[in-house]
């Protein structure tokens, strides 16, 4: 047992030793339970414990908790310690609370009181302890309780430096919890001027705070730019002896430098030419220093120095206005690419990705292509190889595309499994984007399937088909190439899919060659049939029926196959049906009809590649780039934050594109694709509640009213409507296809309401789909009275919209009318359904038809709040299935709508895109109208 | 910074500090997964990795791994140096620190960390100043405790 320092608690040390000596998990648990029992009895015992003992036991509990065991007592004793006049007891109390008290604890009031007392202390050590606790817990209550005191401490003239440091960071934490505690007005300039503080520690802490405040309100804090630049300038020109203890391994104030450089990345380059010039000097000095001989061989020296350098390069890239600096940055990073340190190579590759997207430095980055390719192949660490792949992707343009794509394909054969799928997407995107000759494109994609077939997602092979269909110059080549590829003895199922589809459309283009005559083509494809999944088989059956049209001479052979599969030999119902329908079609239809039905697919509408959307989704943290930005002119720009806006757009567009493309996800049928107009349908349905609140407002007399029926889509109870005269509350319950809605009509006035009457109106044929029974109200609603009215509803079949209740009465001789949408939307009849990932995705795929899906992509009301979204989704009535979607942010739900006539299974997926602040909502059910309505209802909630 | 974890080569967690609020269950899950991921990495590998939506920066000192999760735009190299500064502080305080010091004096390890980082941001980068603050705390304790009461 090592020596224990200062206030050592021997009992604690003995206990820790005991635990360490335990030979097995069981004996450890036994020892812990014994200790817990002991502590519990001590805490409950009659003898009052002194502070030391309390401290010791609390500390033991803390240790037990940190070992990973649950602790459900001792909180009160810890809170008692907070008010101890012995510092070490107080400190242990605070530590326990910081680690173990969750934010909604009942004790929070007591804790806040103790903190308040310590904040009054003149001893900076006590003050700091209190602020550390505030920052550690950082809850809303803390923000409310201390949002006033902390800013005062921060800017007050007589606060000690150490206290200011804590206050700045404590305030930052509270600000992150609750944006309301942001000091503004006169505080702003005082906070900004902390950048001029004498004490480096204060400036460092304050810079972190200012960075957060600037993000919220860039205009108000604009004054910090020039102060930050001059502070930075003083640091970079300082010799390392100037800053004494703030010099870290010969690097002057690296933490503060990095923070200042970060702070400046919130703004566009400074408008003031003087400030701008000084900033550029700083950046140049930092780049120059990188070329100087190191002042120490220690890795700490180079890390700190390079940390500043990388942050400076980030700022240079962010400003994107000084071609000279950008190119210098690029050269510097180029040197790092062959550095001994893996960390530096990793970071250099990462930064270069950004440089590659600037018009000023794109060419300079391309000079390093060979080294980057080597990195991709030779690096020992997969995360570094991944960065190299990202960089190659970013630096690819039409001059080097063939080479880069070829290198990536070569590498793919031996690439790590973890990065293959993403690489496949990247290769597919680059090949499409930079193809001048589409035969090259076709070759690349077929190679992809050959090399990494398992990693080729549906989007990739859909896309090659779309492109081949749209470009008649490549169709013959594509047919010939797939035909050859299919001759390999073992070819990937994805190859069969592409081959089947393309030959079905364009097999005739190569049929003249005896080696690929119609019969040979057919036999080749059919030799793969038995090895394929039902989905691919379905596709092949469609190919065969297309052959019937293309090659009447082999009609007989094909009909034989249809016959075989139209009976029980085909276990899959879809295949059976397909085979028998195709068989009938080929038998009954005349050549003309056949030719019309089985005509070549029309061209697909031009759209952005859906593969890009998939790639973006895979990397939610950072959007992969292969676009060259237009740099800022070296002259001052006027607008800030343009980047943020321009970023949001492309991803929204691409998300749309992928939505359209899913039309292909059912096995391709031979029907010509109808251009999808779901987008318009969605618009027509519009916001079903859009006009309603306005209507109610018109009819009602009182101006002050609260009425938001949307809220009740995701909840069952609450105040549905309220104005100066009445309040109408609702409480509802649903079971299967039945619902019971209790309405509470309350009269808020001191007078009776006369002729009180309610009627229900249902738009269209809603009344037959949702049957409502309602008891009439008594005609008088007494002053201050509340009356209950019960409605019973039965869902007969699925419906849209919701019924309206019209309430009329006479108040003070003036007739009043109110219309309220009842909270009886179709989702109320959901029964949540639990299922595992496998069955979810199986059902999801089954419901992939054009008529089964509904999708909406929409902007989140900022800021996107996933916790709130979760609550809404849970209130919506379906089962929220956690852990199914590979992306933990996505919500996946399943439920069954109960109607008397039918039960309709329904699946839903809501994908938030934090970067773009957009949601994509997809609903699939066996009924189109249901999908649409569910989609509308939920989308409207965000 | 979102959190810092210290764990041994055997995968035993020695210290955890969370700067974002997560339920205990999630914390345990994250800890478990990260320890496995990092222990599986080879010595010469990069100290940074992309993990879920954060960046992980880690470094091994003797038998202990120090691991920080930072935001996407935070500076990786400087995070390594935060770790180093923390190790230096522990070393100065305990006198060539070893894993056992941290096990037996875990509360001290927390107090030192709280002086270095507050709410996940660097509070004081000067080694001298942090040590001064810790010494002042220790002094307060000595003052309030004349005699250590006898253990029962």
Structural class given helices, strands, pairing of chain A?
alpha+beta
Please work out how many helical segments of chain A DSSP would assign.
Answer: 40
Mean pLDDT of chain A: 84
**Helical content class of chain B:** 40-55%
Strand content of chain A: 5-15%
Helix content of chain A: 40-55%
How does the overall form of chain B come out from the CA principal axes?
globular
Low-confidence stretches of chain A: 1-6, 636-703
Largest sheet of chain A: 6 strands, antiparallel
Mean pLDDT of chain B: 89
Q: Quick one: how many beta strands of chain A?
A: 17
Q: Give the chain pair forming the largest contact, with residue counts.
A: A-B, 79 and 65 residues
How is the main sheet of chain B built? 5 strands, antiparallel
pLDDT < 50 stretches of chain B? 145-152
- The class by helix and strand makeup of chain B works out as alpha+beta
Overall form of chain A: globular
Describe this structure in words.
The complex is a heterodimer of chains A (942) and B (152). Chain A has a 6-stranded antiparallel beta sheet. Chain A is of the alpha+beta class and 942 residues long. In chain A, 53% of the residues lie in helices and 12% in strands. Chain A contains 40 helices and 17 strands. In chain A, strand 1 and strand 2 form a beta hairpin. Chain B has 152 residues and is α+β, with helices and mostly antiparallel strands. Helix content of chain B is 46%, strand content 23%. The interface between A and B is large, with 79 and 65 residues. Chain B: One of its GO terms (biological process) is intracellular protein transport. Chain B: Belongs to the adaptor complexes small subunit family. Chain B: Keywords: Coated pit, Cytoplasmic vesicle, Golgi apparatus, Membrane, Protein transport, Transport.
């Amino acid at each position: 047992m090592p020596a224990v320092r200062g206030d050592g608690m021997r009992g604690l040390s003995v206990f820790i030793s005991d635990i360490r000596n335990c030979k097995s998990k069981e004996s450890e648990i036994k020892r812990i339970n014994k200790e817990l029992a002991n502590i519990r009895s001590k805490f409950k015992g009659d003898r009052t414990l002194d502070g030391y003992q309390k401290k010791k036991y609390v500390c033991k509990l803390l240790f037990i908790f940190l070992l990973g065991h649950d602790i459900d007592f001792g909180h009160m004793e810890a809170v008692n310690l907070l008010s101890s006049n012995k510092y070490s007891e107080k400190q242990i109390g605070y530590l326990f609370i910081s680690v173990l008290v969750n934010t909604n604890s009942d004790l929070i009031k007591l804790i806040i009181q103790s903190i308040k007392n310590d904040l009054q202390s003149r001893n900076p050590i006590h003050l700091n302890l209190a602020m550390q606790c505030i920052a550690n817990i950082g809850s809303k209550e803390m923000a409310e309780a201390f949002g006033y005191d902390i800013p005062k401490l921060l800017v007050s003239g007589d606060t000690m430096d150490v206290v200011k440091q804590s206050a700045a960071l404590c305030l930052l934490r509270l600000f992150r919890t609750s944006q309301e505690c942001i000091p503004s007005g006169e505080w702003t300039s005082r906070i900004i001027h902390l950048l001029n503080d004498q004490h480096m520690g204060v400036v460092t802490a304050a810079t972190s705070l200012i960075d957060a405040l600037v993000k919220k309100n860039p205009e108000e804090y604009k004054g910090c730019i020039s102060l930050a630049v001059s502070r930075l300038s003083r640091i970079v020109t300082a010799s390392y002896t100037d800053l004494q203890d703030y010099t870290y391994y010969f690097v002057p104030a690296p933490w503060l430098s990095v923070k200042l450089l970060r702070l400046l990345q919130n703004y566009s380059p400074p408008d003031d030419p003087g400030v701008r010039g000084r900033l550029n000097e700083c950046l140049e000095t930092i780049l120059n220093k990188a070329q100087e001989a190191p002042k120490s061989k220690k890795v700490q020296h180079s890390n700190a120095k390079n940390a500043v350098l990388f942050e400076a390069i980030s700022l240079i890239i962010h400003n994107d206005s000084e071609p000279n600096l950008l190119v210098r940055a690029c050269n510097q990073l180029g040197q790092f690419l062959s550095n001994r340190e893996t960390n530096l190579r990793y970071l250099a590759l990462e930064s270069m990705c950004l440089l590659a997207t600037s018009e000023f430095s794109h060419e300079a980055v391309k000079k390093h292509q060979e080294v980057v390719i080597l990195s991709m192949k030779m690096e020992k660490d997969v995360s570094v190889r991944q960065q190299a792949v990202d960089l190659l992707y970013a630096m690819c343009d039409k001059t080097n595309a063939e080479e880069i794509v070829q290198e990536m394909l070569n590498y793919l054969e031996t690439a790590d499994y973890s990065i293959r799928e993403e690489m496949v997407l990247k290769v597919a995107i680059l090949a499409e984007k930079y193809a001048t000759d589409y035969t090259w494109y076709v070759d690349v994609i077929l190679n992809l399937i050959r090399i990494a077939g398992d990693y080729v997602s549906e989007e990739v092979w859909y896309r090659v088909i779309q492109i081949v269909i749209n470009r008649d110059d490549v169709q013959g080549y594509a047919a010939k190439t797939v035909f050859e590829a299919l001759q390999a003895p073992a070819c990937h199922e994805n190859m069969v899919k592409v081959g089947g589809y393309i030959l079905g459309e364009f097999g005739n283009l190569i049929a003249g060659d005896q080696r690929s005559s119609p019969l040979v083509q057919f036999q080749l494809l059919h030799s793969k049939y038995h090895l394929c999944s039902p989905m691919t088989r379905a596709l092949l059956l469609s190919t065969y029926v297309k052959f019937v049209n293309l090659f009447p001479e082999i009609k007989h052979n094909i009909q034989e196959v249809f016959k075989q599969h139209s009976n029980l030999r085909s276990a899959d119902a879809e295949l059976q049906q397909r085979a028998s329908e195709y068989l009938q079609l080929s038998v009954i239809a005349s050549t003309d009809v056949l030719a019309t039905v089985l005509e070549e697919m029309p061209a697909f509408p031009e759209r952005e590649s859906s593969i890009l959307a998939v790639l973006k989704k895979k990397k939610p943290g950072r959007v992969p780039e292969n676009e060259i930005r237009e740099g800022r002119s070296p002259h001052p720009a006027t607008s800030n934050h343009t980047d943020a806006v321009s970023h949001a757009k492309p991803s929204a567009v691409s998300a749309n594109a992928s939505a359209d493309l899913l039309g292909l996800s059912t096995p391709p049928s031979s029907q010509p694709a109808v251009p999808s107009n779901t987008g318009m349908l969605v618009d027509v349905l519009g916001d079903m509640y859009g006009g309603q609140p306005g209507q109610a407002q018109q009819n009602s007399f009182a101006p002050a009213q609260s009425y938001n029926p949307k809220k009740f889509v995701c909840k069952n109870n609450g105040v549905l409507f309220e104005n100066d005269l009445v309040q109408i509350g609702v409480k509802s319950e649903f079971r299967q296809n039945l619902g019971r809605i209790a309405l509470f009509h309350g009269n808020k006035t001191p007078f009776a309401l006369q002729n009180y009457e309610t009627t229900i109106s249902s738009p269209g044929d809603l009344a037959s789909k949702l049957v409502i029974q309602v008891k009439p109200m008594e005609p008088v609603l007494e002053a201050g009275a509340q009356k209950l009215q019960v409605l019973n509803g039965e869902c007969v079949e699925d419906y849209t919209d919701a019924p309206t209740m019209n309430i009329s009465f006479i108040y003070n001789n003036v007739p009043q009318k109110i219309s309220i949408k009842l909270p009886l939307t179709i989702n109320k009849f959901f029964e949540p359904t639990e299922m595992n990932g496998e069955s979810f995705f199986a059902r999801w795929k089954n419901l992939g038809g054009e008529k089964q899906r509904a999708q909406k992509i929409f902007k989140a009301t900022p800021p996107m709040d996933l916790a709130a979204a979760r609550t809404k989704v849970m209130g919506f009535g379906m089962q929220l299935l956690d852990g199914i979607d590979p992306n933990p942010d996505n919500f996946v739900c399943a439920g069954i709508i109960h109607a008397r006539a039918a039960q309709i299974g329904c699946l839903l997926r809501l994908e938030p895109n934090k970067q773009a602040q957009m949601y994509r909502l997809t609903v699939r059910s066996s009924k189109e109208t249901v999908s649409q309505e569910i989609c509308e209802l939920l989308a409207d909630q965000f | 910074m979102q959190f810092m974890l210290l764990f041994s080569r055997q995968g035993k967690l020695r210290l955890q500090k969370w700067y974002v609020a997560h339920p205990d269950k999630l914390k345990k899950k994250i800890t478990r997964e990260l320890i496995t991921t990092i222990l599986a990495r080879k010595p010469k590998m990069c100290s940074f990795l992309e993990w879920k939506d954060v960046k992980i920066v880690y470094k091994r000192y003797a038998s202990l791994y120090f691991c920080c999760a930072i935001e996407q735009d935070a500076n990786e190299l400087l995070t390594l140096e935060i770790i180093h500064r923390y190790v230096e502080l522990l070393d100065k305080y305990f006198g060539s620190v070893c894993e056992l010091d941290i096990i037996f004096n875990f509360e001290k390890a927390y107090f030192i960390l709280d002086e270095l980082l507050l709410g996940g941001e660097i509070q004081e980068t000067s080694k001298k100043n942090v040590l001064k603050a810790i010494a002042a705390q220790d002094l307060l304790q000595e003052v309030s405790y004349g005699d250590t009461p006898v253990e029962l």
